[in-house]
């Protein structure tokens, strides 16, 4: 096999298997940082051995067995150092028989198990900052390389690497156990996991900075993590609500840009380019939410809003009154200035731009939106619809100055020019 083919194969295997491997090792050594190092050692061993011996029939099992052997060596060394040569840990006693290494396919029948869920909860532990949770989740659960994560969030690789190192050190120093949280803290910890996945998806769906309007790879990764979590927590309605939201939103990705990569706004999109399979998956997840009685959770409500768009064959068929009502409900259960701004858009579509502008104008002094490009962007759109083109142009220019995304800046600058032309 050519070197390039080998690297592609190994990268693909790593993306699929890394979370389970690191989770298994973390359960053994009780330290996610060391677990990742051991998993990386197995990856290096594959790079050294596979070119000469060939790719194993089950490469994931090979990586798992190799990594576990290294973990067992570490546990032996720890036991010897502690003077406990006759009392090795549970992992060695149960996973070794007569000195033989674990079977290459041991424990790999189910590629997604409790260890992955534990790893998710550890990577999203509240002891870490939100930024660290995102970075660590993508690194350990998503299987992304540090340079890939740095590029995705437009950070220097060294900065991102330091963030991950500090996160692992924090978890180690805080002695965060590698276990699922108890009932008393499950809600808080699950909320943190869902929030991280949501943030990753949003950054992919509408990039906050850089040249690209979207980053589909981040959406794909968030969807994968959400689907894993839904498999491991099938009885939690909000997990399915988040998956439903992401499936439906992701269905529009191809239509969000034109052939030249320029942004295409929702009402202008070619709905024939929407992915019907993802829409069906999203609607099915939304049905599971209803069956679990969770229709009024924040993610479920957002998914229901997305479903209104998905069910409309044409933009003119959209049930904006229902969307406005859903935003009213969302504002009750998860109030925020951003939700209120989105509600203003829905109200403007359901009841006219003047009604929406009243809501937006009440948000103009909101501190959280002071540097938020969408506030003047939405206001500019409403003013343009009211025929107040000179004011609209000014708002679009203000929004263009605030955004960090080059594609969005270009779009807003063009809208400012068109409004200025319309104003004469």
Automatic annotation (TrEMBL):
Record-level Gene Ontology MF annotations: DNA binding; sigma factor activity
Coiled coil: none
GO biological process: DNA-templated transcription initiation
Cleaved signal peptide residues: none
Annotated DUF6596 domain residues: 189-288
Pfam families reported for this sequence: DUF6596, Sigma70_r2, Sigma70_r4_2
SUPFAM superfamilies reported for this sequence: Sigma2 domain of RNA polymerase sigma factors (SSF88946), Sigma3 and sigma4 domains of RNA polymerase sigma factors (SSF88659)
Domain RNA polymerase sigma factor 70 region 4 type intervals: 120-171
Gene3D superfamilies: 1.10.1740.10
Domain RNA polymerase sigma-70 region: 20-78
InterPro entries: DUF6596, RNA_pol_sigma70_r2, RNA_pol_sigma70_r4_t2, RNA_pol_sigma_r2, RNA_pol_sigma_r3/r4-like
This protein's name: RNA polymerase subunit sigma-24
Organism placement in taxonomy: Bacteria, Pseudomonadati, Pseudomonadota, Betaproteobacteria, Nitrosomonadales
């Amino acid at each position: 096999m050519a070197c390039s083919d080998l690297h592609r194969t190994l990268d693909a295997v790593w993306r699929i298997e890394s979370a389970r491997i690191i989770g298994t090792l973390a359960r053994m050594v009780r330290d996610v940082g060391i677990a990742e190092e051991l998993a990386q050692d197995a990856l290096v061993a594959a790079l050294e051995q596979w070119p000469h011996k060939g790719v194993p029939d089950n490469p994931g099992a090979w990586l798992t067995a190799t990594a576990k052997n290294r973990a067992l060596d570490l546990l032996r060394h720890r036991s010897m150092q502690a003077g406990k040569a006759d009392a090795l840990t549970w992992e060695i006693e149960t996973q070794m028989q007569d000195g033989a290494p674990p079977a290459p396919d041991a424990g790999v029948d189910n590629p997604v198990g409790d260890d992955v869920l534990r790893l998710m909860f550890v990577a999203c532990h509240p002891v870490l900052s939100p930024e660290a949770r995102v970075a660590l989740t993508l690194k350990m659960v998503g299987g992304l390389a540090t340079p890939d994560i740095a590029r995705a969030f437009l950070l220097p690789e060294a900065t991102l690497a330091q963030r991950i190192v500090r996160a692992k050190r924090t978890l180690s120093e805080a002695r965060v156990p590698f276990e699922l949280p108890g009932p008393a803290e499950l809600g808080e910890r699950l909320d943190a996991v869902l929030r991280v996945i949501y943030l990753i998806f949003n950054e992919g769906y509408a990039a906050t900075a850089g040249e690209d309007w979207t980053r589909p790879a981040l959406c794909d990764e968030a969807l994968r993590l959400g689907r894993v979590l839904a498999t491991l927590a099938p009885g939690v309605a909000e997990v399915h609500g988040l998956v439903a939201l992401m499936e439906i939103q992701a269905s529009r990705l191809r239509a969000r840009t034109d052939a030249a990569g320029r942004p295409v706004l929702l009402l202008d999109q070619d709905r024939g380019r929407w992915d019907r399979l993802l829409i069906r998956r999203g609607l099915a997840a939304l049905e599971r939410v209803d069956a679990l009685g969770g229709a009024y959770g924040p993610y479920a409500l957002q998914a229901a809003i997305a479903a209104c768009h998905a069910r409309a064959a044409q933009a003119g068929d959209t049930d904006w009154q229902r969307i406005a009502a859903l935003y009213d409900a969302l504002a009750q259960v998860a109030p925020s200035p951003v939700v209120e701004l989105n509600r203003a858009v829905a109200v403007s579509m359901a009841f006219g731009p003047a009604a929406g502008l009243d809501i937006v104008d009440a948000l103009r002094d909101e501190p959280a939106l002071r540097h938020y490009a969408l506030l003047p962007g939405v206001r500019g759109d409403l003013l343009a619809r009211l025929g107040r083109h000179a004011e609209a142009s000014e708002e679009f220019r203000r929004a263009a100055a605030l955004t960090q995304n080059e594609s969005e800046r270009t779009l807003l600058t063009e809208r400012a020019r068109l409004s200025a032309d319309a104003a004469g």
